[in-house]
Design brief:
By secondary structure, the chain is mostly helical. About 75% of the residues lie in helices and about 0% in strands. Helix 1 packs antiparallel against helix 10, helix 4 packs antiparallel against helix 8 and helix 6 packs antiparallel against helix 11.
């Protein structure tokens, strides 16, 4: 394996670990978001959260923004709009459905991502990856569902899942390690602007007390600024479908936090569902490692980009 291939393989492993870390952060926010939107409107919450996140990330990464091309700025704007719509729909949905059910429906982006990859990008998705997708979806259902009704909250959350999938596909196609910092700034500024426009007509209500402010700041800085930068960088080294499968760990972490901090009971369904999601992630990681080994054994003239 050449030094470039070794570096690429190492970057993919680091990217996977980084995605797992931010997925854990996202998983910790489900019960926080539900508590916050009981006290201020979803639009106001998102406006405050992403304005804080945009200011923070701009203060740190303003120089990389200046290095972006016009095309990269346009891509960042499109990605920011997709993520803003997803966040708004998911947050509205959380106000009208249970957190566990929201976690499952949001997680259907693991199915929507390869579908959109095949339809929009005309890329072939291997059968082994489809197996991992179906295994992850079954695990999410086992983990999250106990009866299933479909109303307003579930519909909003499904729309959110579609836009999350679009965002994942877009990042997988257009992000690069060099542009990650600048793209994260553009995305967060756009998300903040969209959130402010949606919240502005009724006036923007600020968090009512210190406890709510702490939750909002945590979600703005860790689950917002840091997470968007980390996802943008990580997806410059991973395919969209591989990233989506890794990110299905979010409901697993959400269930873990609910048991550890929220006082919920650990059930056999949680254990089995979590194990299935972990098995799906392990499957796609094994496929990725086999691809690295194949690259090592192939002559340089025959090397093709075939990452799962």
């Amino acid at each position: 394996m050449t030094s470039a291939q070794v570096t690429a393989a190492r970057s993919r492993h680091i990217a996977t670990l980084l995605l797992i870390s931010i997925t854990a952060i996202w998983g910790s926010t489900f019960f926080l978001i539900r508590n916050v939107v009981m006290q201020i409107s979803p639009a106001d919450f998102l406006a405050v959260r992403f304005t804080v996140a945009a200011v923070a990330v701009t203060a740190v990464f303003w120089r990389p923004v200046l290095a972006l091309s016009r095309r990269e700025i346009q891509v960042g704007i499109g990605l920011g709009i997709a993520y803003a719509v997803a966040q708004l729909m998911q947050t509205v949905g959380l106000a009208h459905t249970e957190a566990t059910r929201s976690g499952f429906i949001t997680g259907t982006y693991v199915v929507l991502t390869p579908v959109l990859t095949a339809l929009l990008l005309r890329e072939r998705v291997p059968r082994s990856t489809w197996f991992a997708v179906l295994l992850a979806t079954a695990g999410l259902a086992m983990l999250s569902l106990n009866g299933f009704g479909f109303g307003f909250g579930e519909t909003m959350t499904l729309i959110a899942a579609l836009f999350y999938a679009l965002h994942i596909v877009g990042l997988g196609r257009y992000s690069s390690a060099a542009s990650a910092a600048g793209l994260s700034v553009v995305q967060l500024v756009v998300i903040a602007v969209v959130s402010l426009v949606v919240a502005a007509p009724g006036g923007i209500e600020l968090p009512p007390d210190a406890g709510v402010w702490l939750s909002v700041l945590y979600m703005a800085l860790m689950a917002g600024a840091v997470a968007i930068w980390a996802q943008t960088w990580a997806q410059s080294h991973l395919s969209a479908t591989r990233a989506a499968i890794v990110m299905t760990l979010e409901p697993v972490f959400a269930a873990g936090f609910a048991v550890g901090l929220g006082g919920e009971s650990l059930t056999a369904r949680m254990l089995l569902g979590g194990a299935m999601v972990l098995a799906a992630m392990y499957t796609v990681e094994l496929i990725g490692r086999k691809a690295d080994v194949s690259a090592e054994q192939s002559p340089p003239s025959e090397l093709l980009h075939h990452e799962v």
